[in-house]
Amino acid sequence: MIPFTAFAEVVAYAAGAALLVGAAGVAALYALRGRSITVLLAVVSAATVLATVAGIAAITLKMLISDHDRSVALTVTAIGGLVGLGVSLLLGHRLIGGTRSLLTSVRAAGETGRFGPPERRLPAELTELGAELSAAYERLDAARARERALETSRRELVAWVSHDLRTPLAGLRAMAEALEDEVVADEVTVRQYHAQIRAETDRLTAMVDDLFELSRIHAGALRLSRQRVGLSDLVSETVAGTEPLARAKGVRLRGEADGVLPVEVDAAELGRALRNLVVNAIRHTPEDGGVEIVAGAEEGMAYVAVSDACGGIPDEDLPRLFDVAFRGEAARTPGGGAGLGLAIARGIVEAHAGEIGVSNAGAGCRFVVRLPLGV
């Protein structure tokens, strides 16, 4: 058994030689830090071999073994080091090939907008990186699609609002000029013009309010004052607020809620969303038709369903019904304002972490709002 002092001396010599070579290797890695992975792996392999050779040389000199034995030991170590260097170069070549394949895919994605992972088999880390890049490009593509849809909606909004503002403003100007020039002088006509001016002013005010609300929603500036309320109370208030419009139109309006359903919502904002849905349903339901509001709970969510008798909506229009300024076929446009009511309703519901959807059902459409139940 080797004496402890001799063993400690061997360790000291080997460690000293290895540390010197290791320090030189670290310095080389720092100097070549901008080079390819193959070069860096070659430096690591060479440092490992040289550290081993230096340690063996130091030990054999200290142990005073024969030149023949020393040569054999150093030769075996050098051969092993060369094999290790070759393996490192092959590994570096594989890594370089994988990274270049990823780089080619990324460059191609810059032209096509879609990222396709390389067909060659990559190391696990590069495969994971490729999957993350693919997911990132998919998210970016979805964001671009949303941006294009939003820009389209903005252009449509400008066009529709310009039209809807121009028509009442032209009427207001004509009536104001007629009154100013005393073209209209009889008392009955004057009162009629005043009433029309008031009605058009109210309509324009409501349109401006809708635009302001929509701008707050799109800017993320909609601040909700949540409180615990019963969904049945919201349904009752919605029915009471829209009953005069339904009566004037000759539409039957009915609302019911299944028990006490607590929800944490901004009662004013959610009430506005529900009124928009009901007003939309009443406007597009023919005389002597019916509009029904039903509230309940299913699958852990509260829901409010508004059903009308509008005759249905073409399937191709359903996905765009909540878009800004979208009106669809002409049969659904009378009295529809700037087409902002449904867009505002969607924005308010989504701000409450809820969902809103529409489908054709029975003699018309069924709008459904889903909200988390209050705990």
UniProtKB/TrEMBL annotation:
SMART domains: HATPase_c, HisKA. It comes from the Bacteria. Gene3D superfamilies: 1.10.287.130, Histidine kinase-like ATPase, C-terminal domain. PROSITE patterns: HIS_KIN. Its EC number is 2.7.13.3. Pfam families: HATPase_c (PF02518), HisKA (PF00512). The chain crosses the membrane at residues 12-32, 39-65, 71-91. One of its GO terms (molecular function) is kinase activity. Keywords: Kinase, Membrane, Phosphoprotein, Transferase, Transmembrane, Transmembrane helix, Two-component regulatory system. It catalyses: ATP + protein L-histidine = ADP + protein N-phospho-L-histidine. It is found in: Cell membrane. It is an enzyme of class 2 (transferase). Residues 160-375 form the Histidine kinase domain. PANTHER family: PHOSPHATE REGULON SENSOR PROTEIN PHOR (PTHR45453). This is Sensor-like histidine kinase SenX3. The lineage of its organism: Bacteria, Bacillati, Actinomycetota, Actinomycetes, Streptosporangiales.
